[in-house]
Known about the structure:
Layout: H1 2-12, E1 19-21, E2 24-26, E3 32-33, E4 36-37, E5 41-43, E6 50-52, E7 54-56, H2 58-63, H3 66-79, E8 83-85, H4 94-102, H5 104-107, E9 112-117, H6 122-136, E10 141-146, H7 152-160, H8 163-172, E11 176-182, H9 187-196, E12 205-209, H10 220-223, H11 225-230, E13 234-238, E14 249-250, E15 255-256, H12 261-265, H13 268-276, E16 282-285, H14 290-302, H15 308-317, H16 319-323
Parallel strand pairs: 7-8, 7-16, 8-9, 9-10, 10-11, 11-12, 12-13, 13-16
Antiparallel strand pairs: 1-2, 3-4, 5-6, 14-15
Helix pairs in contact: 1-15, 3-14, 4-6, 6-8, 7-9
Amino acid sequence: MSNRRTFLKSLAGATAGISLASGSFASNQESNDRLGEVLPKRKLGKTGEQITMLGTGGYHVGWTTERDAQEVVEAALEGGVRFFDTAESYSQGTSEERYGKFLTPKYRDLIFLMTKTTGQNAKTVQEHLEGSLRRLKVDQIDLYQVHAIASPDDVDSRIEAGVLDYLQTAKQEGKIRYIGFTGHQNPYAHTRMLERTKDSDIFDTVQMPVNVLDQTYYSFSENVFPKALERNIGVLAMKSLAAGRFFAEKERFNWSTENPVIPDNLSIKEAMYFVWSLPVATLISGNENATFMREKIALARSFSKLSEAKRLALVEKVKDIAATGQVEYYKQKEA
């Protein structure tokens, strides 16, 4: 408990450029655009960009029905979400195609658009980027990320195969504005990437699991968060509900439990407020229908920051569940 308390206290004072007002994180920009009221925004690390505290996850946009995908995009825009996540690998490009159909033709000027590449070498990454630009129907992507790094060896392999060199070239050519990396399997893959790039300062963002269980088991927050904040790299939170395994059943992953995190131990509100109370730039939420999207938007609008004591109490409440590693099934410890 002492280690978790020390860690949470260290994050309590780390706001990473986020403004505070009336106990919650406030926007530094105008709160309206031509579609209406925008959700509060947070600073994206050293980029100086302001992005909405809630982002739309593109994975679900790819696998749900096309009608639901359109309704998710429309509900997100109507509710004030302006950060949109996707990847070339999501449903073999379907997610990007749907953004190219329902999002970018009319709303490119309003949004911050991010996609990713799983490419293992420069040639593949170039192919992925050109395909993403075509499917998204844009000339430039705001944030392009090295996707799903799995281990320190994976990091080394991609770097040696010229992945980062190509991304810097693509940035110089104006195809992308900012560069980041993601992963959910191994926090030490993230720390290796940070170590390997400490002199080049290539990265603007890091995307990783941030949730109340992560603090206990193979923690990204403990191992990666402080290093990212020290370098003013924007933290993009994902897996905030452990890809749905906080709940009793998860049909797509054949998951069921007799003691779900939600609602037996926490509420959705507590789980998401926990994440937003940390210095994350945005919480990326995957929603397969508009109802779920609107639910998350309502929580963002009502957010107030949890105290350090409250956050610690939530961590302690679920530490036994977290320690099994079953809920955060996507984490894979190296042998």
